[in-house]
Specification:
With 786 residues, the protein is mainly beta. It has three helices and 48 strands. 24% of the residues are buried. The N terminus is likely disordered.
């Protein structure tokens, strides 16, 4: 042992000696070298901007040897150096501290793991006496979200700015077969500056490369570093093009005013129409959040929309949403959209305003374990041109003002309550609804020899309440009996502004509908070595008086009636409160379920409904002709059935149909199939509806729709869709797409077209391209082609 060197024992001394070596080294660093307790670890920590969060943190160091040079005042840890300090781990072949020069040098496979998971590797690091600045060779930084920086050399300035010389940035994983192979994309720059305090990455003389081939160059640009979720700056631009608008470029700017509120400016310049200005304000408070989005343009060429609602100089929209918690059970909010004209949102693709009808609502909602309350006011903004109806016999045209024919709801209230304790051994619940609406113009339609109304001009209010009870009893042999009863009552004020509709001009009408019933099931189970089958007859009978005031009350919420297996055993087959099914009715059917050992299953249901006594509600016409031709308007209904075959491995086929009760003629049919295997998927659907002149359906309707996604490789996939009108031998709409998707890059391109005859406005062929560079951003190109 010489005077100039002191050696710590080798790790081969065993666990006890290793612990002694760690203790000796810590004492030597703090006492003999005169270095502050955590300074050695903090100095090494500056390689990755390690700033101690705990001033009392202790350092643990392991190494094969400790060498102290008394003459040159150099402390060295040599061989398999591991340093643990304040959540950080540092490993290297050798770490030396030269006290006289104030330099810390780490060499040989330097690796730092930060508390947040970031990993920094380098061949060597030479830090100054401040331990905040320094020079690092062959640096590689892997962030916690798998983004990577690399450079031949890097320097740290002011403790938080790292400058990479001849640097590279990418979010792609290295190739497993050949790590030296260029990633799918990377940004190369003469200098990359990463400012941790500003959380921004700057590039000087940078180029974007795909597979090592440069595709774009910029002298300067920047983006938030991968840890940033919100930061002031420009967002990735997007491109749009259409015949009416011209070529347009959107350059969004995000202004992060505070952690809980921000502004986004999204100006778009269209070569034909000029500047479209969009501004969005978002604000989050303790009890909720709200946002406001404003868009507007002074059109340079309004004649591009000649004859349409967009033929005007100025156009715009205001949208706002909000949701606030009043308590743990009560919330309130709004979602309001206002536009200057019918199709502004659709023509300019305003986010949240591209639907055919955009609802605006104000609401108050309360919810507990057994109690639900909701009150809402609705206004529907029609975003389509006025429709034209042609008389099937005379050919006369009728123009419908769809906005005036749309109802304003002010308001609709729903309340549901389920009693916690059983009543007469069963469940008792209360359901209430209050609806008030008005309409400026009647929506009158014509079918051969009769008119009907989707809506009538006037003011209408209804208050409804109902109590329902049911109890399930198990009888001998597994028989299931479910007695039930309900009572519905309502009060209606009808103030129609159209005497031809048959509705009174100013009258109060009340109704009540008591009902008693019983549902019966008897499941039979048969089991074999490969199959389990369940067969169950189902019978249901409901006794009640006739429906009141049919044709004298409006029907706004019960116009949707499709008789199939889903409502065969519904106790009231009308979809809303405005109609109440009356008379004594029996529903009969049988269900079958088979489960195979290999995972396949078959689920089926078939049945029929019978009007036993009283007046058949579905044979009585109201303002909307609901029930006519439904298959329920005769004493013996049509037959309905459904079969589902499921492989349990992603293949499923469902078919449902309705057959005439006299000759089993097919009246309605739907078949749908789905396939899902990994990234591959497909769907196929067929729909058939027999002509119903009394419902305005003069010809049979047959339509087939198909869609699918095929993965042609691990990253590439193709997609397509087609909807075809078999009756008119015409394509309704179709699309085709190509997509690339991996861990760092996404690209998709889609072409779609909807024929004009199936759309309310002239529809261009559209091309949509979108790509995303992970951690940097995404952009899109939308083009409409005449």
């Amino acid at each position: 042992m010489t005077r100039r060197s002191v050696y710590a024992r080798s790790r081969r001394l065993g666990r006890a000696a290793r612990g002694l070596a760690r203790t000796t080294l810590f004492v030597f660093l703090t006492a003999a070298a005169g270095l502050p307790g955590p300074a050695f670890a903090q100095a090494i920590g500056e390689l990755g901007e390690i700033a101690p969060t705990d001033p009392d943190a202790r350092m643990l160091l392991e190494a094969d040897q400790l060498v102290y040079d008394f003459d040159n005042k150099v402390v060295s840890a040599v061989g398999g150096v591991q340093i643990y300090y304040d959540g950080y781990t540092v490993t290297a072949a050798e770490v030396s501290y030269a006290q006289a020069q104030g330099r810390l040098i780490a060499t040989g496979g330097v690796r730092i793991v930060e508390p947040d998971g970031n990993i920094i590797t380098a061949e060597s690091a030479d830090l100054t006496d401040t331990f905040r600045d320094g020079f690092i060779e062959s640096l590689n930084v892997q962030t916690v979200d798998r983004a990577r920086f690399a450079a031949n050399s890097a320097s740290r300035q002011a403790g938080n700015v790292t400058v990479f010389s001849e640097g590279v940035y990418t979010a792609c994983e290295p190739c497993k077969d050949d790590p030296r192979r260029p990633p799918l994309w990377q940004v190369k720059a003469k200098r990359i500056i990463h400012d941790k305090r500003a959380r921004t990455v700057y590039y000087e003389h940078g180029s974007l490369e795909f597979f090592g081939v440069p595709v774009a160059y910029t002298p300067y640009f920047f983006h938030p570093d991968p840890t940033v979720k919100r930061k002031t700056g420009f967002l990735i631009p997007s491109i749009r093009q259409s015949a009416a608008l011209g070529f347009g470029v959107t350059t969004p700017f995000f202004w992060n005013l505070a952690p809980n509120y921000d502004l986004t400016f999204s100006p778009t310049y269209f070569s034909r129409q000029g500047l479209l200005a969009e501004v969005e304000w978002r604000h989050r408070v303790l009890s909720g959040s709200y946002d406001v989005r404003v868009a507007g343009i002074f059109q340079q060429s309004p004649q591009a929309f000649n004859g349409l609602s967009g033929d005007r100089d100025s156009r715009g929209s205001i949208q706002t949403r909000g949701a606030f918690a009043l308590s743990s059970q009560w919330t309130t909010g709004w979602d309001v959209t206002m536009t200057s004209d019918r199709t502004f949102g659709r023509d300019y693709s305003i986010r949240g305003a591209t639907a055919l009808d955009v609802p605006s609502t104000l609401y108050l909602t309360g919810m507990s374990e057994r109690n639900y309350f909701d009150v809402r006011a609705y206004y529907f903004r029609v975003q389509r041109e006025n429709t034209i109806e042609y008389d099937a016999i005379t050919g006369a045209a009728t123009v419908h003002d769809d906005q005036r024919e749309q109802a304003v709801i002010h308001p609709v209230l729903d309340h549901n309550y389920i009693f916690g304790e059983p009543v007469l051994g069963g469940e008792l619940r209360l359901d209430s609804n209050v609806t008030s609406l008005s309409r400026a113009a009647s929506d009158r339609r014509t079918v051969p020899a009769i008119d009907y109304y989707n809506g009538v001009a006037g003011n209408f209010s209804r208050a409804s309440t109902g109590a329902s009870w049911q109890r399930t009893l198990i009888g001998a042999g597994g028989q299931v009996f479910t007695p039930f009863a309900y009572l519905k009552a309502d009060l209606n004020w009808v103030n129609a502004d159209n005497p031809l509709s048959g509705l009174p001009s100013d009258e109060f009408l009340s109704r009540a509908m008591p009902a008693f019933g019983l549902e019966y099931k008897w499941p039979f189970i048969a089991t074999t070595s490969f199959l389990t089958q369940t067969f169950s007859p189902i019978a249901q009978i409901i006794v009640r008086p006739n429906e009141q005031h049919v044709g004298r009350l409006p029907n706004e919420d019960a116009q949707s009636l499709v008789f199939d297996d889903t409502i065969l055993f519904a106790r009231d087959k009308f979809s809303g409160y405005d109609r109440q099914e009356g008379g004594t009715r029996a529903n009969l059917g049988v269900s079958y379920y088979a489960q195979f050992l290999n995972g396949w299953s078959v689920d089926a249901l078939a049945g029929q409904s019978f009007q036993l006594a009283g007046t058949n509600s579905f044979a009585q016409t109201d303002m909307s002709l609901t029930g006519v031709g439904s298959g329920l308007d005769t004493d013996r209904s049509d037959y309905v059935g459904r079969v589902t075959v499921d492989s349990g491995r992603g293949i499923s086929v469902t078919g449902r149909a309705r057959f005439d009760e006299k000759d089993l003629t097919l009246e309605r049919a739907e078949v749908s199939g789905t396939l899902a295997r990994g990234r591959n998927s497909a769907s196929l659907g067929y729909a058939y509806l027999e002509a119903r002149p009394e419902q305005g359906i003069l010809n049979d309707r047959r339509e087939v729709a198909a869609a699918g996604v095929l993965a042609v490789s691990r990253t590439w996939s193709v997609s397509g869709g087609l909807t075809y009108d078999l009756e008119n031998d015409s394509i309704i709409k179709h699309s085709v797409g190509l997509a690339y998707d991996d861990e760092c890059f996404n690209l998709s391109a889609t072409y779609s077209e909807t024929l004009d005859r199936y759309s309310d406005i002239v529809t261009d062929k559209k091309v949509f391209v979108r790509f995303n560079l992970r951690t940097i951003g995404d952009t899109a190109l939308t083009s409409s082609v005449n």
